[in-house]
Design brief:
Layout: H1 22-29, H2 32-43, E1 50-54, H3 60-66, E2 73-78, H4 81-93, E3 99-102, E4 115-121, H5 129-142, E5 143-154, H6 160-165, H7 167-173, H8 175-182, H9 186-192, E6 196-206, E7 209-217, H10 234-239
Parallel strand pairs: 1-2, 1-4, 2-3, 4-5
Antiparallel strand pairs: 5-7, 6-7
Helix pairs in contact: 7-8
Amino acid sequence: MAPRTPRAYLPALRYRWLTALYDPLVRLTMPETAFKQRLLEQARIEPEHTILDLGCGTGTLLLLLGHRRQPVTAIGLDADGEVLRLAAAKARRHAAEIGLVRALSSEIPFADGTFDRVLSSLTLHHLTRPEKLRTLAETFRILRPGGELHVADWGRPHNLLMRMLSVSVRLGDGRHRTADNLDGRLPDLFSQAGFEAVSAVDRFATAFGTLALYRARKPGIARMPGADRKTSSIGEASRSR
């Protein structure tokens, strides 16, 4: 199936001409490696798992996955062709192979029950509430029973300083996109999409406010190690959509 060109989306730094500055800005203002490593730890990823990095951006999380002692099957999805080009270039510099797909998070081009884990880092705050709900519904669909969603994104500020700093997020991406994050409503949206065992796991203070880590699970029994997969490969899952 040929990939569709995504419709409107918000670039990582709102304006396309700023995209090349994304990695340097994140490195300077946030504990990126620390919170992404923590996200991977809480996901409890096993070698037999298939992973989707939803809104993978420039591929930093995928490269961290690739450095694990036991490799896993992982793919990154993003609507922004420019950040995917940056991700591919970064992978070449690190002599790493990563799978990348261009698509909207609200129109994930994979079959039902393809993935054991969906990871999302600094993506949901770019979406309006209807877009968030469609994205979460798609995430729920493509997870296997017992599969898990793990999110790192802006959350409710946990002190006055974080509240003051979070104004930059609200101004940069717009209140209609960021309100659910900054008002602490993401867990409610996860539950509304059908997820269970929804919880806030950790938080980090950053130059832009509180970064919160969440997890949620799709009801059902997780696939046991060594069990037959519903699809033999991610490539087949993509073609079956």
